[in-house]
Amino acid sequence: MLMSQLYAPTLRETPAEAELASHRYMLRAGLMRRSAAGIYTFLPLGLRVVRKVEAIIREEMNRIGGQEVLMPIVQPAELWQETGRWNDYGEEMFRLTDRHNRQFCLGPTHEELVTDLVRAEVRSYRQLPLRLYQIQNKYRDEIRPRFGLIRGREFIMKDMYSFDRDEAGLDESYWACYHAYERIFSRCGLDVRPVEADSGAIGGDVTHEFMVLADVGEAVVLYCSACDYAANVERAESGKVAQSEVPPKQLPMEEVATPGKTTIAEVTEFLGAAPQQCIKTMIYLADGEPVAALVRGDHELNEIKFQRVLGCASLELADTATIERVTGAPVGFAGPVGLRIPVVADHAATEVVNAVVGANKADYHIKNVNIGRDFQVTRTADIRVVVAGDPCPKCGAPLTSAYGIEVGQVFKLGTKYSAALKATFLDENGTEQPLIMGCYGIGVGRTVAAVIEQNHDEHGIAWPVAIAPYHVIVVPVTIKDEQQAKTAREIYEALQRADVEVVLDDRDERPGVKFKDADLIGFPIRITVGPKSLRKGMAEITLRKTGERMELPVDQITDYVVKTIKG
RNA sequence: CGGGGCGUAGCGCAGUUUGGCUAGCGCGCCUGCCUUGGGAGCAGGAGGCCGGAGGUUCAAAUCCUCUCGCCCCGACCA
After folding, report:
1. What is the pLDDT of residues A467-477, one digit of tens each?
2. Largest CB tally within 10 Å, which of A230, A307, A308, A379?
Protein backbone atom coordinates (compact mmCIF):
# COMPACT_ATOMS: atom_id res chain seq x y z
CA MET A 1 0.00 0.00 0.00
CA LEU A 2 1.22 3.45 -0.85
CA MET A 3 0.94 6.02 1.89
CA SER A 4 -0.14 8.59 -0.68
CA GLN A 5 -3.17 6.42 -1.45
CA LEU A 6 -3.99 5.18 2.04
CA TYR A 7 -7.06 6.76 3.58
CA ALA A 8 -5.56 7.39 6.98
CA PRO A 9 -6.18 11.03 7.82
CA THR A 10 -3.88 11.74 10.74
CA LEU A 11 -4.45 14.69 13.00
CA ARG A 12 -1.76 16.88 14.48
CA GLU A 13 -4.04 18.10 17.16
CA THR A 14 -6.13 16.10 19.57
CA PRO A 15 -9.86 16.27 18.96
CA ALA A 16 -11.63 17.79 21.96
CA GLU A 17 -13.82 14.73 22.48
CA ALA A 18 -11.00 12.36 23.39
CA GLU A 19 -9.82 11.71 26.92
CA LEU A 20 -8.11 8.36 26.93
CA ALA A 21 -4.91 7.51 25.10
CA SER A 22 -6.69 4.81 23.11
CA HIS A 23 -9.49 7.14 22.08
CA ARG A 24 -7.11 9.97 21.21
CA TYR A 25 -4.81 7.85 19.15
CA MET A 26 -7.55 6.02 17.33
CA LEU A 27 -8.77 9.40 16.12
CA ARG A 28 -5.37 10.98 15.59
CA ALA A 29 -3.86 8.02 13.79
CA GLY A 30 -6.82 7.88 11.45
CA LEU A 31 -8.19 4.52 12.65
CA MET A 32 -11.76 5.67 13.20
CA ARG A 33 -14.12 8.61 13.24
CA ARG A 34 -17.15 9.30 15.38
CA SER A 35 -20.60 9.22 13.79
CA ALA A 36 -22.72 9.81 16.90
CA ALA A 37 -22.22 9.48 20.63
CA GLY A 38 -20.74 6.04 21.18
CA ILE A 39 -20.99 5.11 17.49
CA TYR A 40 -17.97 4.98 15.21
CA THR A 41 -16.85 4.36 11.66
CA PHE A 42 -13.72 2.28 11.26
CA LEU A 43 -11.33 3.64 8.64
CA PRO A 44 -9.06 1.28 6.72
CA LEU A 45 -6.30 1.07 9.32
CA GLY A 46 -8.71 0.60 12.19
CA LEU A 47 -10.66 -2.03 10.33
CA ARG A 48 -7.50 -3.98 9.56
CA VAL A 49 -6.77 -4.15 13.28
CA VAL A 50 -10.33 -5.22 14.06
CA ARG A 51 -10.15 -7.93 11.39
CA LYS A 52 -6.91 -9.24 12.82
CA VAL A 53 -8.35 -9.49 16.31
CA GLU A 54 -11.37 -11.24 14.84
CA ALA A 55 -9.13 -13.66 12.95
CA ILE A 56 -7.34 -14.61 16.15
CA ILE A 57 -10.67 -15.09 17.88
CA ARG A 58 -11.97 -17.29 15.03
CA GLU A 59 -8.90 -19.48 15.11
CA GLU A 60 -9.19 -20.07 18.82
CA MET A 61 -12.94 -20.57 18.75
CA ASN A 62 -12.69 -23.06 15.91
CA ARG A 63 -9.94 -24.83 17.77
CA ILE A 64 -12.26 -25.62 20.67
CA GLY A 65 -14.99 -26.84 18.38
CA GLY A 66 -16.83 -23.58 17.89
CA GLN A 67 -18.86 -23.21 14.71
CA GLU A 68 -19.49 -19.75 13.36
CA VAL A 69 -22.98 -18.50 12.56
CA LEU A 70 -24.33 -15.04 11.85
CA MET A 71 -27.52 -13.98 13.55
CA PRO A 72 -29.60 -10.91 12.83
CA ILE A 73 -29.14 -7.56 14.48
CA VAL A 74 -32.87 -6.88 14.32
CA GLN A 75 -34.68 -9.26 16.63
CA PRO A 76 -38.40 -9.76 17.22
CA ALA A 77 -39.88 -8.68 20.53
CA GLU A 78 -41.73 -11.99 21.01
CA LEU A 79 -38.58 -13.94 21.81
CA TRP A 80 -37.53 -11.41 24.38
CA GLN A 81 -40.99 -11.45 25.87
CA GLU A 82 -40.73 -15.20 26.25
CA THR A 83 -37.74 -14.85 28.57
CA GLY A 84 -39.07 -11.72 30.22
CA ARG A 85 -36.11 -9.66 29.15
CA TRP A 86 -38.19 -7.40 26.92
CA ASN A 87 -39.07 -5.71 30.21
CA ASP A 88 -36.03 -6.58 32.29
CA TYR A 89 -33.54 -5.09 29.86
CA GLY A 90 -35.10 -1.69 30.28
CA GLU A 91 -33.85 1.53 28.82
CA GLU A 92 -30.65 0.03 27.58
CA MET A 93 -32.37 -1.74 24.72
CA PHE A 94 -32.70 0.03 21.40
CA ARG A 95 -36.26 -0.65 20.29
CA LEU A 96 -37.98 -0.09 16.99
CA THR A 97 -41.32 -0.64 15.39
CA ASP A 98 -41.88 -1.69 11.80
CA ARG A 99 -44.56 -0.40 9.42
CA HIS A 100 -47.00 -3.02 10.64
CA ASN A 101 -46.49 -1.82 14.17
CA ARG A 102 -44.59 -4.92 15.18
CA GLN A 103 -41.91 -4.46 17.77
CA PHE A 104 -38.24 -5.28 17.41
CA CYS A 105 -35.00 -4.49 19.13
CA LEU A 106 -31.45 -4.10 17.98
CA GLY A 107 -29.84 -7.09 19.64
CA PRO A 108 -27.87 -6.21 22.75
CA THR A 109 -26.89 -9.88 22.93
CA HIS A 110 -28.14 -13.10 21.39
CA GLU A 111 -29.11 -15.65 24.02
CA GLU A 112 -32.75 -15.61 22.94
CA LEU A 113 -31.98 -15.92 19.26
CA VAL A 114 -29.47 -18.69 19.58
CA THR A 115 -31.63 -20.67 21.97
CA ASP A 116 -34.55 -20.29 19.61
CA LEU A 117 -32.35 -21.50 16.79
CA VAL A 118 -31.19 -24.53 18.68
CA ARG A 119 -34.51 -25.56 20.20
CA ALA A 120 -35.90 -26.07 16.74
CA GLU A 121 -33.14 -28.43 15.65
CA VAL A 122 -31.56 -30.15 18.61
CA ARG A 123 -33.55 -33.21 19.72
CA SER A 124 -31.06 -35.70 21.08
CA TYR A 125 -28.10 -35.89 23.42
CA ARG A 126 -26.26 -37.32 20.42
CA GLN A 127 -26.18 -33.81 18.94
CA LEU A 128 -24.38 -32.43 21.97
CA PRO A 129 -22.21 -30.69 22.88
CA LEU A 130 -22.83 -27.84 20.48
CA ARG A 131 -20.78 -24.66 20.48
CA LEU A 132 -21.94 -21.84 18.22
CA TYR A 133 -20.40 -18.42 17.98
CA GLN A 134 -20.78 -15.24 16.05
CA ILE A 135 -18.98 -11.98 15.62
CA GLN A 136 -21.13 -9.00 14.91
CA ASN A 137 -22.44 -5.61 15.91
CA LYS A 138 -24.51 -5.37 19.05
CA TYR A 139 -26.39 -2.46 20.48
CA ARG A 140 -26.90 -1.09 23.93
CA ASP A 141 -28.28 2.37 24.50
CA GLU A 142 -25.74 3.15 27.22
CA ILE A 143 -26.75 5.72 29.77
CA ARG A 144 -23.53 7.52 29.03
CA PRO A 145 -21.29 6.36 26.22
CA ARG A 146 -17.67 7.32 26.79
CA PHE A 147 -14.02 6.51 26.26
CA GLY A 148 -14.33 5.87 22.53
CA LEU A 149 -14.66 2.17 21.86
CA ILE A 150 -14.57 1.22 25.50
CA ARG A 151 -18.16 2.16 26.21
CA GLY A 152 -20.02 2.58 22.97
CA ARG A 153 -23.62 2.08 22.00
CA GLU A 154 -22.77 0.07 18.91
CA PHE A 155 -19.95 -2.38 19.32
CA ILE A 156 -18.51 -5.47 17.73
CA MET A 157 -18.76 -8.50 19.90
CA LYS A 158 -17.87 -12.13 19.62
CA ASP A 159 -20.29 -14.32 21.50
CA MET A 160 -20.10 -18.06 21.80
CA TYR A 161 -22.96 -20.12 23.20
CA SER A 162 -22.47 -23.67 24.41
CA PHE A 163 -25.14 -26.33 24.76
CA ASP A 164 -24.41 -29.37 26.85
CA ARG A 165 -26.30 -32.33 28.21
CA ASP A 166 -25.17 -31.94 31.80
CA GLU A 167 -23.11 -29.92 34.27
CA ALA A 168 -19.96 -31.86 33.51
CA GLY A 169 -20.31 -31.00 29.85
CA LEU A 170 -20.90 -27.36 30.69
CA ASP A 171 -17.83 -27.38 32.86
CA GLU A 172 -15.80 -28.66 29.94
CA SER A 173 -17.19 -26.04 27.58
CA TYR A 174 -16.60 -23.34 30.14
CA TRP A 175 -12.98 -24.13 30.81
CA ALA A 176 -12.22 -24.79 27.16
CA CYS A 177 -13.42 -21.29 26.46
CA TYR A 178 -11.61 -19.86 29.46
CA HIS A 179 -8.33 -21.22 28.18
CA ALA A 180 -9.11 -20.13 24.62
CA TYR A 181 -9.58 -16.61 25.98
CA GLU A 182 -6.22 -16.71 27.67
CA ARG A 183 -4.66 -17.60 24.33
CA ILE A 184 -6.63 -14.97 22.42
CA PHE A 185 -5.68 -12.08 24.65
CA SER A 186 -2.11 -13.18 24.95
CA ARG A 187 -1.85 -13.39 21.16
CA CYS A 188 -3.23 -9.85 20.95
CA GLY A 189 -0.34 -8.72 23.10
CA LEU A 190 -2.49 -8.04 26.15
CA ASP A 191 -1.67 -8.58 29.75
CA VAL A 192 -4.98 -9.92 31.00
CA ARG A 193 -6.14 -11.17 34.36
CA PRO A 194 -9.20 -13.41 34.71
CA VAL A 195 -11.21 -12.48 37.79
CA GLU A 196 -14.21 -13.97 39.51
CA ALA A 197 -17.20 -11.80 38.80
CA ASP A 198 -20.86 -11.30 39.40
CA SER A 199 -23.18 -12.59 36.73
CA GLY A 200 -25.59 -9.66 36.89
CA ALA A 201 -28.71 -9.60 34.75
CA ILE A 202 -27.63 -12.31 32.34
CA GLY A 203 -28.13 -14.89 35.01
CA GLY A 204 -26.20 -17.96 35.96
CA ASP A 205 -23.79 -18.50 38.78
CA VAL A 206 -20.19 -19.14 37.76
CA THR A 207 -18.50 -16.42 35.77
CA HIS A 208 -15.09 -14.90 35.13
CA GLU A 209 -14.25 -11.59 33.58
CA PHE A 210 -11.05 -11.04 31.66
CA MET A 211 -9.58 -7.78 32.80
CA VAL A 212 -6.88 -5.67 31.24
CA LEU A 213 -5.27 -3.87 34.12
CA ALA A 214 -5.06 -0.20 33.21
CA ASP A 215 -5.39 3.01 35.19
CA VAL A 216 -8.25 4.12 32.99
CA GLY A 217 -10.32 0.98 33.52
CA GLU A 218 -13.93 1.30 34.60
CA ALA A 219 -14.02 -1.75 36.81
CA VAL A 220 -12.26 -2.28 40.11
CA VAL A 221 -10.60 -5.62 40.68
CA LEU A 222 -8.95 -7.06 43.77
CA TYR A 223 -6.24 -9.60 43.56
CA CYS A 224 -3.95 -11.40 45.92
CA SER A 225 -0.24 -10.99 45.65
CA ALA A 226 0.44 -14.29 47.36
CA CYS A 227 -2.00 -16.67 45.65
CA ASP A 228 -4.08 -16.68 42.46
CA TYR A 229 -7.24 -15.17 43.95
CA ALA A 230 -8.63 -12.33 41.83
CA ALA A 231 -12.14 -10.94 41.71
CA ASN A 232 -14.19 -8.04 40.49
CA VAL A 233 -15.06 -5.72 43.37
CA GLU A 234 -18.71 -6.63 42.81
CA ARG A 235 -17.89 -10.19 43.79
CA ALA A 236 -14.72 -9.95 45.87
CA GLU A 237 -14.80 -11.45 49.33
CA SER A 238 -12.65 -10.70 52.29
CA GLY A 239 -11.06 -13.14 54.68
CA LYS A 240 -11.60 -12.86 58.41
CA VAL A 241 -9.92 -9.87 59.97
CA ALA A 242 -8.01 -10.92 63.07
CA GLN A 243 -9.79 -9.85 66.24
CA SER A 244 -8.05 -8.49 69.26
CA GLU A 245 -7.33 -11.33 71.64
CA VAL A 246 -8.95 -9.84 74.67
CA PRO A 247 -12.25 -8.29 73.66
CA PRO A 248 -12.88 -5.03 75.46
CA LYS A 249 -15.40 -5.09 78.26
CA GLN A 250 -18.98 -4.40 77.24
CA LEU A 251 -20.19 -1.10 78.62
CA PRO A 252 -23.78 -0.14 79.31
CA MET A 253 -25.77 1.44 76.47
CA GLU A 254 -25.98 5.19 76.54
CA GLU A 255 -28.18 7.41 74.44
CA VAL A 256 -26.44 10.58 73.26
CA ALA A 257 -27.81 13.65 71.54
CA THR A 258 -26.38 14.15 68.05
CA PRO A 259 -28.44 17.01 66.68
CA GLY A 260 -28.40 17.10 62.91
CA LYS A 261 -25.52 14.63 62.67
CA THR A 262 -26.67 12.13 60.08
CA THR A 263 -23.53 10.88 58.39
CA ILE A 264 -20.79 8.69 59.78
CA ALA A 265 -18.31 11.50 59.24
CA GLU A 266 -20.44 13.98 61.20
CA VAL A 267 -21.24 11.57 64.00
CA THR A 268 -17.65 10.41 64.50
CA GLU A 269 -16.40 13.96 64.52
CA PHE A 270 -19.09 15.07 66.94
CA LEU A 271 -18.61 12.17 69.34
CA GLY A 272 -14.88 11.79 68.87
CA ALA A 273 -15.33 8.14 67.92
CA ALA A 274 -13.54 6.24 65.17
CA PRO A 275 -15.57 5.18 62.10
CA GLN A 276 -14.63 1.56 62.85
CA GLN A 277 -16.48 1.98 66.12
CA CYS A 278 -19.74 2.77 64.33
CA ILE A 279 -22.27 0.49 62.68
CA LYS A 280 -24.11 1.92 59.70
CA THR A 281 -27.71 0.88 59.34
CA MET A 282 -29.23 1.10 55.90
CA ILE A 283 -32.84 0.36 55.10
CA TYR A 284 -33.52 -1.32 51.78
CA LEU A 285 -36.55 -2.60 49.98
CA ALA A 286 -36.03 -6.15 48.82
CA ASP A 287 -38.84 -7.05 46.42
CA GLY A 288 -40.77 -4.30 48.15
CA GLU A 289 -40.20 -5.55 51.72
CA PRO A 290 -38.04 -3.49 54.10
CA VAL A 291 -34.81 -5.04 55.32
CA ALA A 292 -31.88 -3.55 57.17
CA ALA A 293 -28.20 -3.91 56.32
CA LEU A 294 -25.48 -3.35 58.90
CA VAL A 295 -21.91 -2.55 57.95
CA ARG A 296 -19.07 -1.11 59.96
CA GLY A 297 -18.82 2.67 59.75
CA ASP A 298 -15.68 2.69 57.64
CA HIS A 299 -17.04 0.04 55.26
CA GLU A 300 -19.40 0.26 52.34
CA LEU A 301 -22.29 -1.99 51.58
CA ASN A 302 -21.93 -4.01 48.38
CA GLU A 303 -25.46 -4.06 47.00
CA ILE A 304 -24.71 -6.86 44.60
CA LYS A 305 -23.51 -9.17 47.35
CA PHE A 306 -26.38 -8.06 49.56
CA GLN A 307 -28.88 -8.87 46.86
CA ARG A 308 -27.33 -12.28 46.34
CA VAL A 309 -27.57 -12.99 50.07
CA LEU A 310 -31.21 -11.97 50.11
CA GLY A 311 -32.01 -13.81 46.92
CA CYS A 312 -34.43 -11.11 45.86
CA ALA A 313 -35.23 -9.96 42.34
CA SER A 314 -35.12 -6.25 43.07
CA LEU A 315 -33.21 -4.30 45.67
CA GLU A 316 -33.25 -0.59 46.22
CA LEU A 317 -32.64 1.85 49.01
CA ALA A 318 -35.85 2.52 50.87
CA ASP A 319 -37.57 5.84 50.32
CA THR A 320 -37.71 8.42 53.09
CA ALA A 321 -41.27 7.52 54.06
CA THR A 322 -40.42 3.85 54.50
CA ILE A 323 -37.35 4.68 56.55
CA GLU A 324 -39.40 6.86 58.87
CA ARG A 325 -42.06 4.19 59.17
CA VAL A 326 -39.72 1.32 60.06
CA THR A 327 -37.23 3.24 62.20
CA GLY A 328 -39.50 5.87 63.65
CA ALA A 329 -36.85 8.46 62.87
CA PRO A 330 -35.86 10.66 59.97
CA VAL A 331 -33.12 9.54 57.61
CA GLY A 332 -29.72 9.51 59.30
CA PHE A 333 -30.65 8.04 62.68
CA ALA A 334 -31.39 4.42 61.86
CA GLY A 335 -29.97 1.78 64.16
CA PRO A 336 -30.44 -1.94 64.81
CA VAL A 337 -31.71 -1.64 68.37
CA GLY A 338 -35.43 -2.35 68.44
CA LEU A 339 -35.80 -2.72 64.68
CA ARG A 340 -38.69 -5.00 63.76
CA ILE A 341 -37.57 -5.90 60.24
CA PRO A 342 -35.08 -8.53 59.07
CA VAL A 343 -31.53 -7.41 59.77
CA VAL A 344 -28.51 -8.65 57.82
CA ALA A 345 -25.13 -7.78 59.29
CA ASP A 346 -21.78 -7.85 57.60
CA HIS A 347 -19.26 -10.07 59.40
CA ALA A 348 -17.12 -7.09 60.35
CA ALA A 349 -20.10 -5.22 61.79
CA THR A 350 -20.84 -8.06 64.19
CA GLU A 351 -17.40 -7.80 65.68
CA VAL A 352 -17.66 -4.21 66.82
CA VAL A 353 -17.79 -4.02 70.59
CA ASN A 354 -19.40 -1.00 72.22
CA ALA A 355 -20.57 0.33 68.90
CA VAL A 356 -22.11 3.67 68.01
CA VAL A 357 -25.41 3.28 66.17
CA GLY A 358 -28.42 5.39 65.30
CA ALA A 359 -31.10 5.50 68.02
CA ASN A 360 -34.14 5.30 65.71
CA LYS A 361 -35.03 8.65 67.20
CA ALA A 362 -34.44 12.04 65.66
CA ASP A 363 -31.14 13.67 66.69
CA TYR A 364 -29.96 10.77 68.85
CA HIS A 365 -27.42 7.97 68.57
CA ILE A 366 -26.62 5.22 71.06
CA LYS A 367 -23.15 4.41 72.34
CA ASN A 368 -21.85 1.06 73.65
CA VAL A 369 -24.26 -1.08 71.69
CA ASN A 370 -23.41 -4.78 71.54
CA ILE A 371 -24.75 -7.50 69.30
CA GLY A 372 -26.53 -10.29 71.14
CA ARG A 373 -27.05 -8.20 74.24
CA ASP A 374 -28.76 -5.16 72.70
CA PHE A 375 -29.98 -6.39 69.36
CA GLN A 376 -30.23 -9.53 67.27
CA VAL A 377 -29.56 -10.02 63.61
CA THR A 378 -31.49 -12.26 61.26
CA ARG A 379 -28.28 -13.39 59.68
CA THR A 380 -24.64 -12.54 59.25
CA ALA A 381 -23.06 -12.50 55.82
CA ASP A 382 -20.39 -11.00 53.66
CA ILE A 383 -22.12 -7.93 52.26
CA ARG A 384 -19.50 -5.20 52.20
CA VAL A 385 -17.26 -3.76 49.53
CA VAL A 386 -13.79 -5.23 49.85
CA VAL A 387 -10.93 -2.75 49.65
CA ALA A 388 -7.19 -2.97 49.15
CA GLY A 389 -5.48 -4.23 52.27
CA ASP A 390 -8.30 -6.56 53.28
CA PRO A 391 -7.15 -10.15 53.72
CA CYS A 392 -7.42 -12.56 50.81
CA PRO A 393 -10.29 -15.01 51.40
CA LYS A 394 -8.10 -17.89 50.22
CA CYS A 395 -4.79 -17.27 51.91
CA GLY A 396 -5.11 -14.22 54.13
CA ALA A 397 -2.43 -12.12 52.44
CA PRO A 398 -3.43 -8.51 51.85
CA LEU A 399 -5.39 -7.85 48.65
CA THR A 400 -4.34 -5.26 46.09
CA SER A 401 -6.83 -3.28 44.05
CA ALA A 402 -6.50 -2.07 40.49
CA TYR A 403 -8.62 -0.70 37.70
CA GLY A 404 -9.40 -2.93 34.79
CA ILE A 405 -11.00 -2.83 31.37
CA GLU A 406 -13.26 -5.82 30.90
CA VAL A 407 -12.50 -7.32 27.51
CA GLY A 408 -14.21 -10.67 27.90
CA GLN A 409 -16.49 -12.64 30.14
CA VAL A 410 -17.41 -16.30 30.40
CA PHE A 411 -20.66 -17.44 32.04
CA LYS A 412 -22.23 -20.66 33.09
CA LEU A 413 -25.85 -19.90 32.31
CA GLY A 414 -27.33 -23.23 33.24
CA THR A 415 -30.92 -23.63 32.12
CA LYS A 416 -32.18 -20.07 32.51
CA TYR A 417 -32.80 -19.55 28.78
CA SER A 418 -33.38 -23.13 27.74
CA ALA A 419 -36.05 -23.49 30.41
CA ALA A 420 -37.77 -20.22 29.52
CA LEU A 421 -37.69 -21.03 25.82
CA LYS A 422 -38.31 -24.76 26.24
CA ALA A 423 -35.12 -25.80 24.51
CA THR A 424 -34.85 -29.44 25.42
CA PHE A 425 -33.34 -32.70 24.27
CA LEU A 426 -33.91 -36.37 25.02
CA ASP A 427 -31.24 -38.12 27.06
CA GLU A 428 -30.26 -41.79 26.81
CA ASN A 429 -33.26 -42.74 28.91
CA GLY A 430 -35.64 -40.92 26.64
CA THR A 431 -36.25 -38.27 29.27
CA GLU A 432 -36.73 -34.70 28.17
CA GLN A 433 -34.07 -32.38 29.65
CA PRO A 434 -33.37 -28.68 29.25
CA LEU A 435 -30.12 -27.84 27.49
CA ILE A 436 -27.37 -26.69 29.80
CA MET A 437 -25.99 -23.46 28.43
CA GLY A 438 -22.97 -21.24 28.71
CA CYS A 439 -22.16 -17.97 27.01
CA TYR A 440 -18.82 -16.38 26.33
CA GLY A 441 -18.29 -12.84 25.04
CA ILE A 442 -15.39 -10.75 23.85
CA GLY A 443 -15.65 -7.06 23.06
CA VAL A 444 -13.63 -6.74 19.90
CA GLY A 445 -13.41 -2.95 19.72
CA ARG A 446 -12.75 -2.76 23.39
CA THR A 447 -9.93 -5.25 22.99
CA VAL A 448 -8.38 -3.02 20.35
CA ALA A 449 -8.69 -0.01 22.64
CA ALA A 450 -7.21 -1.99 25.53
CA VAL A 451 -4.24 -2.99 23.40
CA ILE A 452 -3.57 0.68 22.73
CA GLU A 453 -3.89 1.51 26.40
CA GLN A 454 -1.18 -1.02 27.12
CA ASN A 455 0.94 -0.27 24.05
CA HIS A 456 1.48 3.43 23.48
CA ASP A 457 3.83 6.26 24.34
CA GLU A 458 3.78 10.04 23.90
CA HIS A 459 4.33 9.68 20.15
CA GLY A 460 1.51 7.30 19.40
CA ILE A 461 0.60 3.64 19.21
CA ALA A 462 3.15 0.82 19.32
CA TRP A 463 1.21 -2.14 17.91
CA PRO A 464 2.07 -5.70 18.79
CA VAL A 465 2.98 -7.37 15.49
CA ALA A 466 0.06 -9.79 15.64
CA ILE A 467 -2.61 -7.13 15.27
CA ALA A 468 -0.71 -4.21 13.72
CA PRO A 469 -2.59 -2.81 10.71
CA TYR A 470 0.63 -3.22 8.70
CA HIS A 471 3.92 -4.69 9.82
CA VAL A 472 6.33 -2.30 8.14
CA ILE A 473 6.55 1.20 6.74
CA VAL A 474 9.33 2.05 4.33
CA VAL A 475 10.28 5.72 4.52
CA PRO A 476 12.59 7.31 1.98
CA VAL A 477 13.91 10.49 3.58
CA THR A 478 13.48 12.34 0.30
CA ILE A 479 11.27 10.80 -2.31
CA LYS A 480 12.61 13.21 -4.89
CA ASP A 481 16.06 11.70 -4.57
CA GLU A 482 16.03 9.10 -7.31
CA GLN A 483 18.41 6.72 -5.59
CA GLN A 484 16.37 6.77 -2.38
CA ALA A 485 13.08 6.43 -4.18
CA LYS A 486 14.35 3.49 -6.20
CA THR A 487 15.86 1.66 -3.23
CA ALA A 488 12.78 2.23 -1.10
CA ARG A 489 10.62 0.86 -3.89
CA GLU A 490 12.82 -2.21 -4.20
CA ILE A 491 12.68 -2.92 -0.50
CA TYR A 492 8.91 -2.40 -0.54
CA GLU A 493 8.42 -4.81 -3.41
CA ALA A 494 10.73 -7.41 -1.93
CA LEU A 495 8.77 -7.29 1.33
CA GLN A 496 5.51 -7.66 -0.55
CA ARG A 497 6.85 -10.74 -2.30
CA ALA A 498 7.71 -12.14 1.12
CA ASP A 499 4.07 -11.62 2.24
CA VAL A 500 4.98 -8.87 4.63
CA GLU A 501 2.24 -6.28 5.09
CA VAL A 502 4.05 -3.13 4.10
CA VAL A 503 3.35 0.51 3.38
CA LEU A 504 5.63 2.71 1.30
CA ASP A 505 5.59 6.34 2.33
CA ASP A 506 5.86 7.82 -1.14
CA ARG A 507 4.59 11.24 -0.13
CA ASP A 508 6.63 14.29 -0.98
CA GLU A 509 6.79 15.39 2.62
CA ARG A 510 9.61 16.46 4.82
CA PRO A 511 11.12 13.56 6.75
CA GLY A 512 9.85 14.81 10.10
CA VAL A 513 6.26 14.59 8.92
CA LYS A 514 6.71 11.04 7.73
CA PHE A 515 8.46 9.93 10.91
CA LYS A 516 5.77 11.50 13.07
CA ASP A 517 3.00 9.75 11.17
CA ALA A 518 4.85 6.43 11.29
CA ASP A 519 5.20 6.72 15.07
CA LEU A 520 1.61 7.84 15.51
CA ILE A 521 0.15 5.00 13.47
CA GLY A 522 2.52 2.64 15.20
CA PHE A 523 4.01 0.39 12.53
CA PRO A 524 6.11 -2.12 14.48
CA ILE A 525 9.02 -1.77 12.04
CA ARG A 526 10.19 1.30 10.15
CA ILE A 527 12.73 1.08 7.38
CA THR A 528 14.37 4.39 6.64
CA VAL A 529 16.12 4.88 3.33
CA GLY A 530 18.32 7.92 3.65
CA PRO A 531 21.57 9.29 2.29
CA LYS A 532 23.68 8.35 5.30
CA SER A 533 23.15 4.60 5.11
CA LEU A 534 22.48 4.40 1.42
CA ARG A 535 26.05 5.50 0.65
CA LYS A 536 27.14 2.28 2.32
CA GLY A 537 24.49 0.24 0.53
CA MET A 538 22.48 0.02 3.69
CA ALA A 539 19.09 1.02 5.10
CA GLU A 540 18.08 1.66 8.65
CA ILE A 541 15.63 -0.38 10.69
CA THR A 542 13.85 1.12 13.69
CA LEU A 543 11.66 -0.92 16.02
CA ARG A 544 8.72 1.13 17.22
CA LYS A 545 8.29 -0.47 20.59
CA THR A 546 11.88 -0.35 21.83
CA GLY A 547 13.26 2.44 19.68
CA GLU A 548 16.10 0.08 18.80
CA ARG A 549 17.86 0.97 15.50
CA MET A 550 20.31 -0.80 13.27
CA GLU A 551 21.71 -0.55 9.78
CA LEU A 552 21.52 -3.51 7.46
CA PRO A 553 22.64 -4.08 3.88
CA VAL A 554 19.63 -3.50 1.64
CA ASP A 555 19.56 -7.10 0.41
CA GLN A 556 19.32 -8.46 3.96
CA ILE A 557 16.37 -6.34 4.99
CA THR A 558 13.66 -8.75 3.89
CA ASP A 559 15.16 -11.68 5.75
CA TYR A 560 15.51 -9.67 8.89
CA VAL A 561 11.96 -8.36 8.72
CA VAL A 562 10.46 -11.77 8.05
CA LYS A 563 12.34 -13.22 10.97
CA THR A 564 11.30 -10.39 13.25
CA ILE A 565 7.60 -10.53 12.54
CA LYS A 566 7.40 -14.29 12.61
CA GLY A 567 9.39 -14.65 15.76
C1' C B 1 -32.25 11.56 34.64
C1' G B 2 -29.55 15.74 37.82
C1' G B 3 -25.37 19.20 37.57
C1' G B 4 -21.50 21.70 34.68
C1' G B 5 -19.51 22.99 29.91
C1' C B 6 -19.38 23.41 24.62
C1' G B 7 -21.46 23.91 19.31
C1' U B 8 -17.94 29.82 14.83
C1' A B 9 -13.65 26.64 8.09
C1' G B 10 -11.44 19.61 7.96
C1' C B 11 -8.94 19.98 13.28
C1' G B 12 -7.76 23.24 17.62
C1' C B 13 -9.62 27.89 19.13
C1' A B 14 -10.62 33.69 19.67
C1' G B 15 -14.69 37.04 19.05
C1' U B 16 -20.47 36.68 22.61
C1' U B 17 -20.05 40.10 28.87
C1' U B 18 -20.95 45.94 26.40
C1' G B 19 -25.28 44.12 19.24
C1' G B 20 -22.39 47.98 14.63
C1' C B 21 -20.22 48.24 9.02
C1' U B 22 -15.24 43.17 5.41
C1' A B 23 -16.09 37.08 11.13
C1' G B 24 -10.63 36.31 12.82
C1' C B 25 -6.12 33.28 14.39
C1' G B 26 -3.02 28.62 14.41
C1' C B 27 -2.73 23.88 12.04
C1' G B 28 -4.33 21.32 7.76
C1' C B 29 -5.81 21.99 2.30
C1' C B 30 -4.68 24.20 -3.06
C1' U B 31 -0.75 27.02 -6.47
C1' G B 32 4.25 28.64 -7.01
C1' C B 33 9.24 29.28 -5.24
C1' C B 34 12.48 27.25 -1.88
C1' U B 35 13.69 23.28 1.44
C1' U B 36 14.50 17.84 2.80
C1' G B 37 17.24 12.75 8.96
C1' G B 38 11.91 14.34 13.55
C1' G B 39 5.27 17.99 12.22
C1' A B 40 10.51 24.06 7.70
C1' G B 41 10.27 29.17 5.15
C1' C B 42 8.19 32.91 1.75
C1' A B 43 4.25 34.52 -1.51
C1' G B 44 -0.58 33.84 -3.30
C1' G B 45 -5.37 31.23 -2.71
C1' A B 46 -9.87 28.18 -1.58
C1' G B 47 -12.98 27.16 2.37
C1' G B 48 -18.00 29.50 7.24
C1' C B 49 -26.39 30.46 6.51
C1' C B 50 -21.34 31.45 13.46
C1' G B 51 -25.70 23.79 15.24
C1' G B 52 -31.20 24.66 13.80
C1' A B 53 -36.05 27.41 14.22
C1' G B 54 -38.54 31.60 15.82
C1' G B 55 -38.35 36.50 18.07
C1' U B 56 -36.41 41.64 19.59
C1' U B 57 -33.81 45.56 16.69
C1' C B 58 -32.29 50.31 11.77
C1' A B 59 -28.67 46.34 12.66
C1' A B 60 -27.70 39.71 15.78
C1' A B 61 -22.13 34.98 16.03
C1' U B 62 -23.37 38.55 20.07
C1' C B 63 -29.83 39.78 23.34
C1' C B 64 -34.62 36.58 24.26
C1' U B 65 -37.52 31.86 23.55
C1' C B 66 -37.65 27.04 21.82
C1' U B 67 -35.07 23.03 19.80
C1' C B 68 -31.06 19.54 18.20
C1' G B 69 -26.20 17.67 19.00
C1' C B 70 -21.65 16.81 21.70
C1' C B 71 -18.26 16.52 26.07
C1' C B 72 -17.35 16.09 31.43
C1' C B 73 -19.08 14.91 36.52
C1' G B 74 -22.85 12.54 39.21
C1' A B 75 -27.09 9.05 39.91
C1' C B 76 -29.51 7.90 45.84
C1' C B 77 -24.36 4.08 50.43
C1' A B 78 -28.31 7.61 56.12
Report:
1. 999 999 999 99
2. A230
